[in-house]
Amino acid sequence: MARRRRASVLALALLLAAGAAGAQPALRAPLTAEVRFADALTGAPLAQVTPGVPFAVELAFRAEVGSVPADLAPLAWVRQRDDTDLPCAESAAAYRAAGRAALGSVDLNGTVLGVVARDGAFTILDPQRSLGSANLLAARRFQPAPTSIAADPRRAEFLLSLPGTGARRGEVVAISAHGAVRVLADGLDRPGTLVAARSGGAWLIERGTGDLLRLGGAGDLRRLPLGARAIAGDGGGEALPARRVAVLHGTLMSVLEPDGAVLAQVAAPEALAVGLTPDAALWLSPGGLNVLWLDAPAAPAVLALPGHFDRLAVGPDGRMVYLFAAGRTGFAVLDLARGRVVQGADTESPVAEVAFLSDTAVLRLADQSAVGVMDLRTVTPGTEAIVGRVALGPPRPAAETAGARLLVPLTPEPAMLAIHAESYTGFVVDRRNAVSGKPPMEALRLRGGTPMLVQPLDRGLRRVAGDRFQVSASLPAPGDWELVVSTGIGQGAFCAAVPAPPAPSQAVSAPGLIQPRPEGTKGLRLVFTRAGGEPASGVRGVVDFATLTGNWRMRRPFATDQSGISLESYDLRAHLPVVVTPRPGPGAFQPLVIEAMP
User: Fold this and answer.
1) What pLDDT, on the 0 to 100 scale, is given for residue 382?
2) Residue 180 scores a pLDDT above 90
3) In this structure, is the dihedral angle defined by the CA atoms of residues 227, 271, 263 and 148, taken in order, positive or negative?
4) What share of the chain is helix, strand, coil (3-state, %, to 5)?
């Protein structure tokens, strides 16, 4: 049975004076919310959340008057309950002021980055935290290094393609934002390119067999024996999940529906690269750019190009196509609506990668020296291409980053992280860099080895309907967890218990006691006994002495004999009263106050 929590999030009933309590009806909150915990893939309600397994948090808001605000942007995180916790409203205010949840919490906001390094290191970074190593959320190492990375939007997990080595077969693993790993598929023959599926899971090319695999988020697998060699999704970029995919296999190009059904298939005998928009499939051949409109799949068109290109990148609206090549400098921009190239420009190094924001294209040069930034709104026929050059670092051999993915959209922010691999640094650029010529004002230091593949994962609440929001989460361990939600409107916030198994109980031993024992006329020794009254023999540690009437402090090592008596004696007469705190271990012995010599 689904567990739901209703909570007032905007206005609580005011406490009326006792004399007027019966004169007015209680006030009702103008906005309420219902919380539902469900399976991240199927949407089935959960009676209990399993630690380490992703689950969905669904919020449904209801307005008592009018409608739910269109600009409602709730934030959420999960924390372990403690007696020292701030109330929900104060905790929400603290989060919005600091921009982060308390340590140990599971933050459900913003974008995190998964970074694959050349040496196989995999790190998860929070780009909002740039102080020292505070942005490092988790780290692992894989040997050999992963060959591809994607992000499952339904389960909020990174997906890594591990090629295997020797007798060990390849795998695809899923890694949560806090580093928990689970195997999604194993026994694979050199798994290669991953394309995340919008409905959950991913598409995968198994390079050893050429099979195309459809991996479900729950570990289910469907195998299509196509002889696939290249794949592209219609998400608007390599880092974004797709609904459909276009596949080059043999001498054919096929467009597949989410369930693997063939929507369109045509001959593409010399295809060099493939792309897909919601309306058209594209592939490059020596003769030009081939365009297959999905509403007329029997009649592909061939558009002439000014030169040889072997790579393409499709803009977010499916209209502008950037064309470039591994062995030559420069690029061209083709407008599908006009059916021709409308702009182009030369570059000092070949273009290695193109990524997009909603209205901006960012082009990374192969030598890592710079990126070019273009405002897509300025791309018009007959005009010179306006490309803002943003320097990243000293030039490097292009072969060092062959096949790398170092441009990262920081959605939902309208910004791109452009990474200079050799300096382990990402620079934040946006549309303003297309015309300003100014260097980036923000940078992010990366952790681990030299970065090769970087994938964003949006872990925040997303609006699935006018009044409904959804997010995926995963608990790192059993315990008493609660969901905290802030609406961002006034002090509107609420908390709801997460149905998780309790943490295993741990036996806590009662602290022992210490007593003073006179030693001659000037000193004293300390007698240590366990909670049951037996002598605490063989204990070693340090003991702190602090006067209650001044600033005197002293720390000394100690050890006890078979009778639990300290081997050292102490002269404390000049400092009484004194607090004695032994530290052989946390909570092992209660502190002692000595007001006079015994």
Assistant:
1) 84
2) no
3) positive
4) 5, 45, 50
Do residues 126 and 112 lie in contact, with contact meaning Cβ atoms separated by under 8 Å? yes
Dihedral (CA of 14, 93, 410, 238) sign: negative
Report how far apart, in Å, the C-alpha atoms of 190 and of each of 122, 228, 422, 535, 562 are.
Answer: 19, 13, 28, 63, 64
Report the alpha-carbon distance of residue 221 to residue 225 in Å, rounded.
13
* Helices assigned H by DSSP within 367-407: none
CA dist 30 and 421 (Å) reads 51
Give CA torsion, residues 415, 421, 423, 424, to 10 deg.
70
Please name the amino acid found at residue 505.
S
**Three-state secondary-structure class, residue 562:** coil
Is 198 in contact with 209 (CB distance < 8 Å)? no
Q: What angle do CA 310, 330, 365 make, to 5 degrees?
A: 90
Q: What is the Cα–Cα distance from 62 to 30, expressed in whole angstroms?
A: 8
Residue-averaged pLDDT of the chain: 87
Q: Are 219 and 264 in contact (CB under 8 A)?
A: no
Q: Does an H or E element contain 138, and which? A: strand 136-141
Per-residue pLDDT tens digits for 533-555? 889 888 877 888 888 888 888 88
CB 356 within 8 A of CB 343: no
Rounded Cα distance between 126 and 430, Å, is 19
Integer Cα distance of 410 and 439 in angstroms: 18
Contacts of residue 560, defined as CB under 8 A and 6 or more positions apart, other chains included, come to: 528, 535, 536, 537, 538, 539, 540, 566, 567
Residue 367 pLDDT grade (very low, low, confident, very high; cuts 50, 70, 90): very high
pLDDT band at residue 238 under the 50/70/90 scheme: confident
End-to-end CA distance of the chain: 65
Q: Which domains does the chain have, with CATH numbers?
A: 4-107+464-497 (2.60.40), 513-594 (2.60.40)
Distance CA 370, CA 293 (A): 35
Cis omega (within 30 of 0) for bond into 144: yes
Pairs from 82-88 (Cβ < 8 Å, separation ≥ 24): 88/484, 88/493, 88/494, 88/495
For residues 262-271, average pLDDT: 95
Stated pTM of the model: 0.76
pLDDT (average), residues 54-66: 88
Q: Which of 150, 144, 157, 151 is nearest to 118 (CA)?
A: 144
pLDDT (tens digit per residue) in 557-575:
788 888 889 888 888 888 8
Alpha carbon distance 315, 317 (integer Å): 6
| CA nearest to 554, candidates 524, 540, 575, 536 | 575
* Beta strands 280-285 and 288-293, pairing class: antiparallel
Q: Where are the alpha helices (DSSP H) in 18-102?
A: 88-98
Per-residue pLDDT at 133 exceeds 60: no
